[in-house]
Amino acid sequence: MASAQSLTTPSTTSRTPASGSSPQSSAPIGTLTKGTLTPERPVPAHIPRPNYVGLDEPPRYTGEDAYDAETIERIRAAATLAADAMVATAQLIAPGVTTDDLDAFAHEYLVSRGAYPSCLSYRHFPKSICTSVNEVICHGIPDSTVLAEGDIVNLDITAFLDGVHGDHNRTFFVGDVDDESRLLVERTYEAMMRGIRAVKPGRPINVVGRAIESYAKRFDYGVVREFIGHGVGKAFHTGLVIPHYDAAPEYSQLIEPGMVFTVEPMLTLGTRHWDMWEDGWTAVTRDRRRTAQFEHTIVVHDDGAEILTLPSAQEESS
Ligand code: MF3
Ligand code: CO
Ligand code: CO
């Protein structure tokens, strides 16, 4: 039951181009710098915290990566909520909005539905979601950065609900985006979907990255190696590693029914190598060219992967 086919192309914020102007065909080189952060957002006391809150690093997870049906249903609920928060938060994306505005909205969306935003206080991450603009590969920290026409922005939203996590990210267009950036975003989505469709029980985990990298190579895109897909559910990151590049013969552990993990490739227009900002989180491409990412949490069935991070019909149509 591969629900993959029902998915559409990347979400956009629809906007009418200014008359007489046409989008540039090539992507600008990034010049992003760190903004200022707002104070920590409170989480109501009645919402259960994940076990890593207040610790420097999460306790080691020693449980399984394949779950029983009851646990999978709980992960499905957390994943659906993350996807619903994505749909709702993305509606705010427009020139003039700050990444902190997006964090504030997503935080409220999750806590008002009884969920803890998994990013908040994970290894001291200071905000509730990740917002990664243009040359930021992943883990951008929401701050006073103002989105501008032509930017691309990734929102990574993870919900902790009923003791389990669902992890989801998508890249969005801010107004009209140049063709090179648009194609990168669309092809990164397709790369993720090809990785997901490669998932079948009995195959080695490295089939996922092989499908992603072979597609990315057609376009000469870089495939980031150091940030990976991961087992998710009873822990935010279980220790199970899903590379997005062709890692064979490594990562040959066999995929099993009931396994839950993410597929979340990061593709770049130029180099796959990166620099880390002094905040210890924000990873930017070394050449400051643009990069895109998509992420789904999936569960493995006998006939392939099912995507769990799909919005409920209610949120999707709102
Ligand atoms: N959601 C990210 C992932 O896909 C992890 C973010 S960790 C944070 O694995 F601390 F940066 F939020
Ligand atoms: Co993830
Ligand atoms: Co994520």
Automatic annotation (TrEMBL):
Binds 2 divalent metal cations per subunit. Has a high-affinity and a low affinity metal-binding site. The true nature of the physiological cofactor is under debate. The enzyme is active with cobalt, zinc, manganese or divalent iron ions. Most likely, methionine aminopeptidases function as mononuclear Fe(2+)-metalloproteases under physiological conditions, and the catalytically relevant metal-binding site has been assigned to the histidine-containing high-affinity site. A divalent metal cation 1 binds at D156, D167, E295. Residues 1-28 have a biased composition (Low complexity). It catalyses: Release of N-terminal amino acids, preferentially methionine, from peptides and arylamides. Residues 1-60 are annotated as: Disordered. SUPFAM superfamilies: Creatinase/aminopeptidase. Substrate binds at H139, H237. Belongs to the peptidase M24A family. Methionine aminopeptidase type 1 subfamily. This is Methionine aminopeptidase. It comes from Candidatus Nesterenkonia stercoripullorum.
